[in-house]
Each structure stands twice: as C-alpha cells, then as structure tokens.
C-alpha cells in the first residue's frame, strides 16, 4: 500500500533530520570544496558562471539534502595543472569553444531532451516495453561526448544509454527502433532500451548489470594497447570511455579497474555520472565518500569534478580530461548532475525529498535553461538548433514506426556466431591472414625467444607422440602455445600465470609473448573474464585459465554476458573467448565443498555458451585447439584429479565442439541378452566407467561408453545411435540431483528419444548436499565405478 502524503512527509522529515546529523564528507581540493560550501550558503541556488550575464535565484525547499555545485572554468584550471600536469597551452585549447561547437552542444542537449520525452510518451503508449531509464537533466554529458569523443574511440555505457549512443553518432532512428523492438533497431530488436550497440560507431553497450561494464571497458582499452603493440591500430590516440553512476562506482569492480588501468597505463576515461542516487537510495546513505574523482589517487590516476548543469564548464573540464587520456593515461571525470525523472517510468519516487528535489531541480538546475540564460546563448541560433533537434526526433519516430518486427526465429539464429558444426577449424586462418600473422610475430617476439618457444613446442609434441604420452595439462598448454604463436591476436589471462598456474595450462606464455598478451591477474576471476570479454569484442581471442573451475563462480555475471552478447547485439559482436578450468568431483577428492562444486551445472543454463569437457589428453588438446579458433564463447572443463594423467595425443587434430565421443561399444552378445546399457558420463566419470567394465564383463554385462565431450550443444545423434543398440541409458553424473547436468541430459533423452527406451533413464548423481571432506561421508555422496556396476545390473 502506498504511503499517504501526511505519513510520507513525516518520514521524509525524520530521514532528513537523521541525515543532517551525519558527518560531512571530507573534501578534496579548493575547487571541490565548493560542493560543501554550497550547502553552507543560503537554501537557494545562485546560478553563477564566468560567461553569465544574468542571475536567477530560485529558493530550494528547506528539506533538500543535495544542492547544485559550482566548478567555474577559472577555478578548474589550477586543478588541471596540479593534478593532470597540463600546460597553459593545453588548458587554453580545452577552454576555447567556438561558435560552431557551442551550437552543436546546444543542439545535442535539445536532441537528447526531446528524444527522451518522446520515449516517455511511447512507453506510456505501450510501444516501448520492459525497463527504460531516461536521461533528462544530464544533457551536458552527451554534449561533451559529441564534441570530444571520436568514432574510433571505444564506448561502454550502462542501462541509461540512449543519449550516450546518440552523442556517439548512433543513428537516432535506429536507437528508437531498437526501443520499439523493431528489425531496424541497432540490434534488430534483440537488445531493447538497456542494450544499445553499434559496431560502426564503436558503441559497445548498453550493459544492464550495475558496474559490469567497467572491466569490459578496461579490456577494450587493452585492445587499443594491443593494437599498438601489434602495429594494427587505426589511430594511435584512440581511447576507451566507460560510464558509471556514482552509486555503481562504489562497486569493488571500480577499484579493480582503476588498478588495472594504472598498472598498464591504459587509455581509458572513467566518466562518473553523479546524480546523487544509487537507483533510489541517496548515495550518501551508503557511501562514506562520494568523491569518486579522488578514488584514483591511490593508483596515481588523476580525477576532476564538473558541474553538469553548466554545459560550457563540463565541456572544458571534460575536454581537458579526455586530452590527458589520449596523451598520457587513465583519468576520472565526475559530473555532478540532477536526474529529472525517476529511476524508470515505473518508479513511484517515494524516497525522501525526491519529488521536492525533482521540482526544484527542473526549475533551478536545468542545463538547457541555464545555457539559454548565459552570455554564450547569444552565439547560437536557439530556435534553429531546437528545430533541427526536433526534426531528427520526428524522423526517428517515423522510422521506428515504419520498421517491421524482426523474424520470429531471429533469436534462435543468433545462438552462436559459429553455428553448430559449421566450421572446419583446421582451415580457419587468423583474421589478418597467416602470412601477416607470421610477420607480426617475428617483429614483436625477439628472435632468441622465438627459437626457445619453438623448441619447447617441439618437446611437447614429442612427448605427445611418445609411448608414455603427455599429461592433460601439458596437452592443453601445447594447444595454447601453438595458437598464440600462430595468431598474435590470441591472448591469455590467469592467476599465477608466469608460474604456469596449477597444472601448466598457461606455462611459458608470458615468457614467450610478454605481459600484455599473457597477463598475470589479480585474484578475481570476474575481473579478468570481464577484461577478456572487452578484448573479444575488439578483435582478439582471449584464453582465460581458471586454475580451479570453481573459481569461475566469481565470474558468473561476466560469463552470462559473454554468452548473451552475440544475440543481444543483433549478431554484431562475435565473442571468440575460451575459458579453461580444471574441475569436477572425483571419488576420494578430499577437497571439501567449495572446491567440489558442480560449476559445469551452474553454467549450463547460460545461453550462447559452448560447454565441452575432456577426460583425456587427446580430447583436451583437440577441443582446446578448436575452441580457441571458434568465434563463440566456450568453456572447456578438465578433470581436476586427472590433470597429470598421461596418455596418447595426436597433434594437429581439431575436434568438433558439438559431438560426444564414443569410447567403447557393447558386445553383440550382451545386446542380444538384453544386458547392454548406454553409459553417458564426463570428466572423472569416464575413468570410473572404464574401471567398471571388467567387472561388468565378468558378470555378462557390457556398455556403450559415451563421453559427453560436449555438454552444450546436446549431441542427440551420437546418443540416439547408441540407444538404438542398447535401448537403456545410465548417466554417471558429477553434479547434484536437482539442476544437475544429468537432470538436463535425462530430460533431453526422455523428451526426444522416448521410443528408443526399454527402461526409465537411470541417474547416478550426487544428492543435494555439499560434498564433504571425510572419506566415509564422501563415499556416500560421490558416485564411482562400484555404483555404476550396480546401476547397470539394476537396469537389466
């Protein structure tokens, strides 16, 4: 039940009193102390600017807790000199706004305001569905973008992305059509309001999870650095730009990304849009310090604050920060704004003081009105600019209304960039071609290092062909080294990478290819999976090694977005990213619950991922080679307790990512006697099944042993072919009864092959309890060869 006005007013008064008792946030420089000084002035907003010819005083309600700040250009200049090391010439260039630039900025503000107003009307009319977040009141930021951000720069926004896209050159008609869910939209209607992407202008989202875009943008910035390293970049002073709210900047991803940007001196600008609200919550209620522009000081990254109600000051300060990123390194620009609308149209805006603040801000803090009252307004044909903006919005609406809906089967078409079974990976060349790739490798890898690397590869290949064979870890390491040598756009990310991680999977990559292509990472898988995603969107083939697959739980959000990206962008951005980890649950593993989780089951429901497993060196090598060359995001899972097990491996083989592997066929005698069963298993289950075969044979039973080398997509053909022989199936599963891999496989078999079954599907899986450490308890939980023997006999 909504609060009645009297009760709501009383709550707001109590909240305001409590908030007033909170200690003031420590300020930074003299310029930024104006934030608190404004609160010490009268409860009115005095709009004062260097270029102002008028002043307008509008009383602020006494219950407001957040007022406008002032950051005049003349007071910003000393900060830019001291914090950014800018020269007088640099500052003069940033501060010089021509008549044309002023006119374009005003037109952009009007375009954004009119566009968002029409979006609101269309939403109320039911033409726009789902969540939508409007940008009214924050138009100075797109004015800055339109002026200083280039088409070649890589832009990563968040869910309030319409105006950022417009300012970065994305067609207004395509944006509106996307919101309408039409085929003419930027993403053909697959993304919607929160997911605007445009490859032509390098506008790379629209990301809906708060702060998830931060590591993606760092990965994009790394791709710029990699382009320079490889000599393939279009423009040497390209930058990455990432937008985040001041609430989102409290997320730990921000600190991780500032660290990464500083460590590699990446060309990235963090634009912090500070409207004082973390969704609806007052940010100051949850953040001890809202001076996000100062967060970078610990890492040596300069930051600056701008009054977002003054478009001229925002542009001047913003241009200075952008020039710093183009020429020196990362920076933070925090823009203090007021959002005139609720978080979304569905927002009741019941939080304290919100409606009073909104009414006051619309009257006193509107950047468009403030500009129109400034001296600079005389340099602009206001009516002509307004008419131009409105005409563009009119055409956008016309285009969106005329655009047809997308095909009903489009989502299914966009499941994977490389459709199932469509690619011969042995013939896929690097994007630049083999000859160019070889020349780049010779240029960037020292000759002595290249000689040593090739010798190491030959030693591993000899091991693979030896009688003793090669371990699973070394087989995957061989695949990675071969692919990184062959294609310089292949990169590697891992913890403990230079030491080879736990199982040698990324061994020698950094020693051979350097720290930019083979990066040691902080201990947060979500962070470096996110960076890999940003690289993959920009022409690279990152390999992420998880050490233990369960550590990937930290990166579930990033894995989800990796799986979604190709479809959500309407097929614009491929995602050639490979995740490799040793996991599963083996008998007698003794690792306890956290290291024995069924990560493979957790990710089965993520659309767009190709998920493979390998229990032997041959499959591990061949699947790794294919997955690295595939344009889809893939996860290759390896058996944690068998990583050092050696076996034969045929080099230069590429296994399909959509096929299960049949290791054994049951004897015809067992089939004729009705004592043959199809056994489906993976990871450690393959060895357990092989261990059970002698005992089964001794008692007259046998099995078709099918290793699920692809968990997704589902290989119905191989399983059906086996069931047509045995008509019974037993699944030896390394996940829980509820929501496990075996549950999925059982359902698929029952739904699509029911007529082949002479008995119900049998599942040998873990019960829904954490895997214990003690052997006695673990034996009851984790299924093994003895359980399979009894399971097969019970079916026959």
3D architecture notes:
With 796 residues, the chain is an alpha/beta fold. It is built from 30 helices and 25 strands. The strands form seven sheets. Strands 14-13-15-16-18-17-23 form a seven-stranded mixed beta sheet, sandwiched between helices. A five-stranded parallel beta sheet has the order 3-6-7-11-10, with helices on both faces. Helix 24 (617-629) links the parallel strand 17 and strand 18 (634-639). The protein is elongated and about 95 Å long. Residues 1-55 have low confidence and may be disordered.
Task: Break the fold down into its secondary structure elements and pairings.
Layout: H1 5-20, H2 34-40, E1 44-46, E2 57-59, H3 73-84, H4 88-95, H5 99-124, H6 140-148, E3 154-156, H7 162-167, H8 172-179, E4 197-198, E5 203-204, H9 213-230, E6 240-245, H10 252-263, E7 268-274, E8 277-278, E9 281-282, H11 283-286, E10 303-307, H12 311-327, E11 331-336, H13 354-364, H14 367-372, H15 382-402, H16 410-413, H17 434-444, H18 447-464, E12 470-471, H19 472-486, E13 490-494, H20 509-517, E14 518-520, H21 525-536, E15 541-548, H22 556-568, E16 578-583, H23 599-602, E17 610-613, H24 617-629, E18 634-639, E19 646-647, E20 661-664, H25 668-672, E21 676-681, H26 684-698, E22 702-707, E23 710-712, H27 716-726, E24 729-736, H28 741-752, E25 762-766, H29 775-781, H30 785-795
Parallel strand pairs: 3-6, 6-7, 7-11, 10-11, 13-14, 13-15, 15-16, 16-18, 17-18, 21-22, 21-24, 24-25
Antiparallel strand pairs: 1-2, 4-5, 8-9, 12-19, 17-23, 20-22
């Amino acid at each position: 039940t909504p609060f009645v006005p009297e009760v709501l007013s009383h709550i707001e008064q109590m909240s305001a009193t409590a908030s007033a008792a909170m200690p003031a946030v420590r300020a930074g420089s003299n310029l930024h102390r104006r934030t608190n000084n404004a609160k010490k002035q009268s409860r009115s907003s005095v709009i004062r600017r260097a270029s102002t010819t008028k002043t307008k005083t509008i009383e602020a309600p006494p219950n407001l807790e957040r007022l406008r700040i002032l950051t005049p250009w003349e007071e910003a200049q000393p900060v830019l000199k001291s914090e950014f090391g800018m020269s007088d010439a640099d500052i003069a260039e940033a501060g010089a706004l021509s008549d044309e630039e002023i006119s374009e900025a005003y037109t952009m503000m009007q375009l954004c305001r009119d566009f968002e107003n029409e979006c609101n009307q269309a939403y109320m009319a039911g033409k726009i569905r789902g969540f939508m977040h409007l940008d009214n009141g924050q138009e100075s930021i797109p004015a800055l973008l339109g002026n200083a951000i280039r088409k070649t720069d890589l832009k990563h926004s968040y869910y309030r992305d319409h105006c950022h896209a417009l300012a970065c050159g994305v067609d207004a008609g395509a944006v509106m059509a996307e919101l309408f869910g039409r085929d003419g939209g930027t993403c053909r209607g697959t993304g919607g309001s929160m997911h605007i992407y445009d490859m032509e202008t390098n506008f790379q989202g629209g990301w809906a999870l708060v702060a998830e875009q931060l590591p993606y943008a760092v990965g994009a910035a790394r791709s710029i650095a990699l382009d320079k390293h490889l000599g393939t970049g279009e423009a040497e002073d390209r930058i990455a730009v990432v937008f985040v709210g001041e609430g989102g900047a409290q997320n730990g991803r921000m600190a991780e990304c500032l660290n990464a940007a500083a460590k590699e001196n990446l060309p990235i600008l963090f634009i912090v849009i500070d409207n004082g609200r973390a969704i609806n919550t007052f940010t100051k209620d949850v953040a001890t310090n809202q001076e996000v522009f100062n967060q970078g000081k610990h890492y040596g990254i300069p930051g600056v604050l701008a009054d977002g109600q003054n478009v001229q000051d925002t542009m001047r300060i913003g241009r200075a920060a952008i020039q710093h990123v183009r020429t020196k390194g990362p920076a933070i620009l925090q823009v203090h704004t007021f959002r005139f609308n609720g978080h979304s149209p569905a927002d009741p805006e019941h939080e304290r003081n919100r409606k009073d603040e909104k009414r006051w801000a619309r009257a006193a803090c509107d950047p468009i009105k403030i500009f129109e009252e400034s001296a600079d307004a005389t340099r602009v044909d206001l009516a002509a600019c307004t008419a131009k903006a409105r005409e563009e919005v009119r055409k956008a609406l016309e285009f969106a209304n005329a655009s047809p809906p997308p095909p009903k089967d489009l989502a299914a078409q966009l499941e994977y960039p490389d459709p199932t079974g469509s690619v011969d990976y042995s013939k896929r060349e690097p994007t630049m071609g083999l000859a160019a790739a070889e020349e780049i490798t010779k240029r960037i890898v020292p000759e002595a290092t290249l000689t040593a690397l090739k010798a190491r590869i030959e030693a591993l290949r000899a091991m693979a062909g030896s009688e003793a064979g090669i371990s699973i870890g070394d087989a995957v390491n061989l695949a990675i080294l071969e692919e990184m040598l062959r294609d310089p756009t292949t990169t590697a990310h891992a913890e403990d990478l230079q030491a080879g991680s736990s199982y040698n999977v990324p061994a020698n990559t950094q020693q051979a290819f350097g720290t930019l292509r083979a990066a040691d990472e902080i201990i947060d898988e979500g962070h470096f999976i996110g960076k890999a995603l940003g690289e993959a969107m920009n022409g690279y083939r990152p390999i992420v090694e998880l050490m233990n697959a369960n550590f990937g739980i930290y990166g579930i959000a990033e894995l989800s977005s990796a799986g979604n990206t190709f479809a959500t962008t309407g097929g614009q951005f491929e995602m050639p990213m490979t995740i490799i980890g040793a996991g599963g649950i083996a008998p007698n593993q003794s690792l306890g619950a956290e290291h024995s989780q069924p990560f493979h089951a957790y990710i089965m429901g993520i659309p767009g991922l190709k998920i493979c497993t390998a229990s032997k060196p041959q499959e591990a090598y061949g699947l790794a080679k294919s997955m690295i060359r595939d344009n889809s995001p893939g996860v290759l899972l390896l058996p944690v307790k068998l990583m050092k097990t050696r076996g034969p491996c045929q080099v230069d083989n590429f296994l399909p990512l959509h096929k299960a592997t049949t290791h054994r066929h049951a004897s015809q005698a067992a089939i004729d006697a009705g004592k043959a069963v199809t056994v489906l298993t993976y990871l450690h289950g393959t060895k357990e099944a092989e261990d059970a075969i002698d005992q089964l044979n001794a008692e007259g039973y046998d099995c078709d042993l099918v290793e699920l080398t692809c968990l997704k997509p589902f290989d119905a053909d191989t399983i059906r072919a086996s069931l047509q022989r045995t008509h019974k199936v037993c699944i030896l599963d390394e996940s829980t009864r509820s929501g496990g891999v075996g549950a999925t496989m059982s359902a698929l078999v029952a739904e699509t092959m029911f007529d082949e079954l002479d008995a119900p599907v049998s599942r040998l899986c873990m019960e829904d309890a954490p895997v214990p450490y003690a052997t006695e308890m673990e034996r009851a939980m984790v299924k093994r060869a003895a359980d399979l023997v009894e399971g097969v006999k019970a079916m026959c």
